[in-house]
Amino acid sequence: RGAVLICGGRGGVMEAAARGARSAGGTTVGILPGGDRHEGNPYLDVVVTTGMGQARNLAVVLSGDALVAIGGEYGTLSEIALALKHGVPVVGLHTWRLEGAGPAGTPLRGFHAARDAEEAVELALRLGRQGREPGRADE
Fold it and tell me: What is the DSSP string of the chain?
């Protein structure tokens, strides 16, 4: 579909996403926390080393048009928060349960839940084409 996958570049969910994107003919980019490009998974077409540790999450988030958050590690939570702060739409798949700051059950602006991987990709592509919400990083 012409999309580029940008991820943290290591194993687990990041490797599975890169493997799937590459098998579908996509381009894959890994933004690594360390300085050793060999820490990247074997499905990456482009490897960016940062030496920034978890601070590289901001580079991952701001390099894409939409974020698909999968799983429940704290790195994922930080990427969700950074994306929402910068107006990058987030699609959640089996990840953190988040609500807005209003009354209980208030939807979180910019966060969209997906039922499965196919829906997550479709939502991310559609939301990414719509662009970022302006002015969110200043809130």
Answer: ---EEEE--SSTHHHHHHHHHHHTT-EEEEEESSS-GGGS-TT-SEEEE-S-GGGHHHHHHHTSSSEEEEE--HHHHHHHHHHHHTT--EEEEEE-----SSSTTPPPTTEEE-SSHHHHHHHHHHHHHH-PPTTGGG-
